[in-house]
Amino acid sequence: MRTVAETGSTNADMLGLAGSGIAEGVWLRAERQTGGRGRQGRVWASPVGNFYGSTVVRMRGGDPSPATLALVAAVALEEVLRIYLPGAGEGLAIKWPNDLLLHGAKLSGILLERAGDAVVVGMGVNLAHHPDDTDRVATSLAAHGATPDPADFAETLADAFARWVGIWRGQGLAPVRARWLERAHPIGTALTARLPDGSATDGLFGGLDLDGALNLRLADGTTRVIHAGDVFLL
Fold it and tell me: Which pTM does this prediction carry?
C-alpha cells in the first residue's frame, strides 16, 4: 500500500503508473484528493478522514470481461463495510453496478478506467465525512457510529479485493454474481435508469444478466437489459 498525503486523483496517478508497468495488486491511497472524480466526470469531494484509493488489475487471457470487475469491487467493498458497521451492516445494500447504499444513502463510489491491459479500480468511501449538497443523499460510517482508521480500512479492503479477484479469475463471474445478488437490494425494487443517450427508463429490478448487466422489468411485462447508465432507487 503506497500512501501519499495529497494528490489530484489516485485514479489518474494509477493510470500513469499502469502505463509504466506497475504490478497488479499495488494500491495507491491518498489522505486527501484535490481533483477526485466519480463516474461520468462528477466531482468526488475528498476531505481528510475518508478513504481514497486505486489499484490495478492486469487482464489475462481467459479472464471474464473487464467490465465485470465493477461487480468484484462492489462485493469486496460490501464485505469490508459490513465488518466495520454496527449491527452487522443492517441496511447496507449494493445498487447496480457498484454503489454501496446504507439505508438508501450513498456511502461510496467506484470508478473503473482502462489503460491497455490494465484496469484501474478506484474507490472512495465516506468514513468520517459525507457531502450534504449533492443530488443524491449521502452518508458516512461515522454517521452510523463507526470510525475506522483509513489506513486500517485500506489494508482490509486490499485483502478482500485480492481474494475476490482470485475468485473471479479462477472460478469465473458466477460466484461473484451470486454474491452481488445476495447483497443487493431486493428483486422487484423500483428503479429508474438514466441512459447514456439522455433518456430514462423506469422499471423493477429483475436481477442480473449472466454477464452482469442489469435486468429491468418494464410495465408492459418485457425486460430491458441495461449495460450502461445511472440507476436510482424510486
Answer: 0.93
